[in-house]
Structure to design on (970 residues):
């Protein structure tokens, strides 16, 4: 892809970026307790004695979360570590009831992996995964309910998280954006995280540094915590890179620090300087034995894995003849891909893809509907395309039929039948319309024959109009050409 | 009446089953002792006489109906480190002195399920940190063997050992992190066993050092310890470190002969300047076992001298993290301040005693960046070597005999102990290795010093081989013929 280089009067600069993404695990109960993970329940409703850090309470590992983590690791093409350990990350905060977070430090459950991303110019790039570990989430502090007090909601405390750490492989905001979209897509395919950044179930820390273009050094990086949308991540990278460049070009130095991105001003500001960095005093969690996985357990999960976006995309290109771009768009979302496959079954897949990405998505957009609430079913969309390919209706009629489908949810055959919209392919009938037209529009016929070939479209339009749109346009074209000579 | 409290549990159960005595009169006798003597010994910090008598009435019905359970009507004291549902649980710390748990610890639940009656909560060193019970927020326990000078009962389960010695309960629960069952048992002339790590669930026991803590009984004799451990032990899904190892009937080992049993005497425990009385009793105990048919073998535990420093790195490290939850936010003592940090500082400054603060500081230090490798990591390595020592030793012997403590009970407020905590820590020299290696060990009284104070002998078994301890201890108990108070 086109390189992302920030050029100033003095220098050309390259951006180096790595991401750490916290993904909330989809599971019935929390990672170390039996409390529910239901989102949106009343404040402090889903809190067990363990989550509240009561005296004498002990964590017990939820197997479902381990299962989900392995699935995710496999989805990231990563090594699953058969031996992993839990550690305590010690720090005080009011929404961290135990005074430590149970996480994985030295021995994470998932090791190195790789994810291919599709870039806007059609090229792909491999982003390397450094590791992924599982840990518990903290609760929520609410500071804006009282001027003097803070309130704590522990519903989220103890919910399982997967923290995915990438290598510093991103060289542009676009790459980071493409990665996050791809990651979200993989997680949703796997059903291990809903990927909703706006609800906080996927949260991103962004590490950024810059270096003169062509250099291979790594300069001091700054971390921006909890950036909560793909767009903001991209903006944060750009703004932070520019800040670094400005500092360097003015003879300054970048200090390692934690910063916060403010989408309103498009700038970052200091949250915590390095000298105030926490000493988390990590040590192995003595309440939990090491996590040892068997090959059978891992293989069983592997065998149950769904087809992931890359594989699906490749199959759509190879078997269904889709373009790489169409396949990518359709496969980003599993529901869309499933809908497409259902619609394309037995029909012209390319045409189905065009309809899906064109009129169908436009209709959903206009009606502000989710795919699952679409009035037009996959089967009916396929049937509509079939009516076109088998010349029962033409493209223009199809648009009218689709509009009716979108309103009524009816199947297209029924609509065509009831409204008498079958196209006329009978050459005799069309010939008659043409003959009538040529006989009455003598001026235009003369002009056309005299060299104004642009009038051809007018003749086609007139015939179509006479047929009330039902004439097969191909037949009209052929006959007109013959008759106009 | 009060002679009923002279009975051991096994004797009481016989009389209860034969309807010679009723649970109500037995419980009343203990309640009476408890109420008459507590001011003198300060063994209980909370008494629940009414609850106990209500339980006794239920026990009476059970005996009449013939539905009596294994410990029906046996009145116990519970170390105030075990959470008891609806009954204040303090860990003898100011920070928890208003805390009433809404849950029951697994061990006490087992005892309740087996029909035991609870008389109240017993004094201990604050958060079980101490060897003399002097760090308790409720003041020291007075050793019932004290003559003119008030002596310590040992710690941390000082209340448990003193209450059993003074017949203020039939037996008590204790916990042992570095000797907290065995040392007070030795000081008070009673019998206590710390089972193998993982034998009893830690769920609901206020944590001190998770990888070392283990619950066990303190009782009048070896037979009673077996009866209680039968009830207390067992796998618990709520404690991931509890063992699935089959729990044998420990009572079945009582009375088994020990002919040909190899008893190891670790040479490294014969420290220079060992109290000659202690040394003499040690020799005497070996002679007694020999007379019962055992073979005495010399063994080596070469890393013994590193045990104390290793223990005093690992235990405070875990404690510093385990005690982070006592922050004044959700329960316990809260001292308001200006902002969250001040709330923490004020609550913890006020809530914790000096020894607890000392250990939190040590623990925080040894886990800090830059010190972790030199202290915590090294201690973990030495811990492995200490465990290997025992593995090697147990190739040559079946059980190990040592004194429990190098000294006899000392005076409350002893300057040497209070001025330099190291002197206090040195009292644990014979007990801490056992916790580091996770092994079972019992202390039983062997005789009196010239001053008329009890000495205890320690028997250390292989992991999950409490059975051999019980049969050996029973033979030694018979030979020693120690006269209880």
């Amino acid at each position: 892809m086109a390189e992302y280089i920030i050029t100033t009067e003095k220098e050309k600069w390259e951006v180096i970026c790595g991401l750490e993404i916290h993904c909330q695990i989809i599971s019935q109960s929390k990672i170390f307790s039996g409390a529910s993970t239901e989102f949106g329940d009343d404040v402090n409703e889903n809190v067990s004695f363990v989550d509240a850090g009561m005296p004498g309470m002990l964590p017990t590992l939820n197997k479902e979360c381990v299962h989900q983590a392995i699935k995710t690791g496999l989805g990231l093409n990563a090594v699953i570590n058969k031996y992993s350990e839990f550690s305590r990350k010690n720090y005080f905060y009011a929404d961290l009831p135990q005074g430590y977070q149970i996480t994985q430090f030295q021995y994470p459950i998932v090791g190195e992996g790789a994810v291919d991303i599709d870039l806007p110019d059609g090229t792909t790039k491999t982003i390397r995964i450094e590791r992924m570990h599982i840990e518990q989430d903290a609760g929520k502090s609410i500071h804006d309910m009282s001027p003097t007090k803070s309130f704590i909601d522990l519903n989220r405390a103890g919910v399982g998280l997967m923290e995915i750490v990438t290598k510093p492989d991103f060289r542009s905001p676009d790459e980071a954006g493409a990665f996050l979209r791809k990651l979200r897509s993989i997680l949703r395919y796997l059903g291990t995280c809903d990927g909703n950044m706006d609800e906080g179930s996927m949260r991103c820390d962004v590490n950024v540094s810059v270096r003169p273009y062509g250099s291979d050094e790594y300069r001091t990086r700054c971390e921006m915590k909890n950036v909560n949308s793909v767009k903001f991540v991209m903006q944060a990278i750009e703004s932070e890179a520019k800040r670094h460049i400005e500092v360097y070009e003015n003879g300054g130095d970048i200090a390692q620090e934690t910063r916060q991105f403010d989408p309103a001003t498009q700038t970052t500001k200091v949250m915590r300087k390095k000298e105030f960095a926490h000493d988390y005093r990590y040590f192995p969690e003595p309440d939990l034995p090491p996590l040892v996985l068997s090959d059978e357990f891992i293989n069983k999960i592997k065998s149950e894995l769904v087809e992931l976006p890359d594989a699906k995309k490749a199959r759509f290109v190879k078997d269904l003849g889709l373009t790489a771009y169409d396949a990518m768009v359709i496969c980003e979302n599993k529901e869309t891909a499933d809908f497409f496959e259902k619609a394309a079954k037995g029909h012209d897949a390319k045409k189905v893809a065009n309809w899906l990405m064109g009129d169908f998505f436009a209709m959903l957009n206009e009606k502000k509907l989710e795919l699952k609430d679409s009035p037009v079913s996959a089967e009916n969309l396929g049937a509509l395309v079939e009516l076109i390919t088998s010349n029962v209706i033409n493209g223009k009629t199809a648009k009218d039929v689709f509009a009716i489908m979108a309103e009524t949810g009816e199947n297209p055959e029924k609509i065509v039948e009831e409204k008498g919209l079958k196209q006329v392919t009978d050459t005799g009938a069309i010939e008659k319309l043409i003959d009538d037209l040529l006989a009455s529009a003598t001026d235009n016929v003369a002009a056309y024959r005299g060299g104004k070939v642009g009038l051809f479209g007018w003749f086609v339009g007139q015939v179509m109009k006479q047929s009330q749109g039902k004439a097969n346009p191909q037949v009209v074209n052929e006959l007109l050409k013959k008759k106009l000579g | 009446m009060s002679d009923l409290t002279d009975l051991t549990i096994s004797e009481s159960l016989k009389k209860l089953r034969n309807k010679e005595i009723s649970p109500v009169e037995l419980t009343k006798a203990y309640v009476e002792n408890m109420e008459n003597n507590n001011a003198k010994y300060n063994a209980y910090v909370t008494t629940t006489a009414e609850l106990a008598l209500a339980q006794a009435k239920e026990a009476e019905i059970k005996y009449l109906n013939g539905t009596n359970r294994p410990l029906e009507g046996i009145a116990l004291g519970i170390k105030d480190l075990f959470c008891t549902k609806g009954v204040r649980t303090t860990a003898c710390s100011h920070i928890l002195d208003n805390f009433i748990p809404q849950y029951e610890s697994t061990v006490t639940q087992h005892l309740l399920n087996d029909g035991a009656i609870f008389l109240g909560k017993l004094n201990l060193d604050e958060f079980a940190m101490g060897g003399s019970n002097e760090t308790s927020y409720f003041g020291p326990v007075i050793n019932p063997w004290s003559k003119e000078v008030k002596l310590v009962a040992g710690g941390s389960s000082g209340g448990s050992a003193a209450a059993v010695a003074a017949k203020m309960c039939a037996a008590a629960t204790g916990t042992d992190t570095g000797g907290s069952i065995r040392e007070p048992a030795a000081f008070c002339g009673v019998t206590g066993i710390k089972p193998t790590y993982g034998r009893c669930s830690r769920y609901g026991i206020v944590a001190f050092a998770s990888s070392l803590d283990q619950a066990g009984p303190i009782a009048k004799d070896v037979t009673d310890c077996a009866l209680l451990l039968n009830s207390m032990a067992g796998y618990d899904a709520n404690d991931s470190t509890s063992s699935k190892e089959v729990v044998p009937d420990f009572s079945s080992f009582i009375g088994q002969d020990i002919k040909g049993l190899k008893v190891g005497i670790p040479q490294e425990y014969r420290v220079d300047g060992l109290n000659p009385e202690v040394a003499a009793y040690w020799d005497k105990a070996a002679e007694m076992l020999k007379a019962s048919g055992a073979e005495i073998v010399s063994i080596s535990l070469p890393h013994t001298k590193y045990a104390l420093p290793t223990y005093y790195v690992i235990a405070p490290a875990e404690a510093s993290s385990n005690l982070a939850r006592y922050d004044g936010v959700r329960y316990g003592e809260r001292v308001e301040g200006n902002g969250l940090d001040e709330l923490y500082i004020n609550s913890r400054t006020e809530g914790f005693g000096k020894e607890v603060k000392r250990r939190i500081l040590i623990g925080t230090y040894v886990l800090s960046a830059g010190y972790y490798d030199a202290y915590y990591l090294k201690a973990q390595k030495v811990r492995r070597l200490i465990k290997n020592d025992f593995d090697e030793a147990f190739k040559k012997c079946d059980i190990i005999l040592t004194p429990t403590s190098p000294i006899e009970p000392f005076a409350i407020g002893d300057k040497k102990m209070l001025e330099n905590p190291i002197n206090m820590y040195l009292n644990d020299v014979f007990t801490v290795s056992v916790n580091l290696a996770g092994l079972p060990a019992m202390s039983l009284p062997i005789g009196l010093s010239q001053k008329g104070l009890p000495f205890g002998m320690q028997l250390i078994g292989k992991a999950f081989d409490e059975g051999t301890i019980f049969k050996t201890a029973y033979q030694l108990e018979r030979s020693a013929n120690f006269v209880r108070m």
Notes: The interface with chain B takes residues 49, 52-61, 88, 90, 92-94, 97-100, 150, 152, 279, 281-283, 286-289 of chain A (CB under 8 Å). Chain A has three domains: 5-301, 307-419, 427-484. The longest strand of chain A covers residues 12-24.
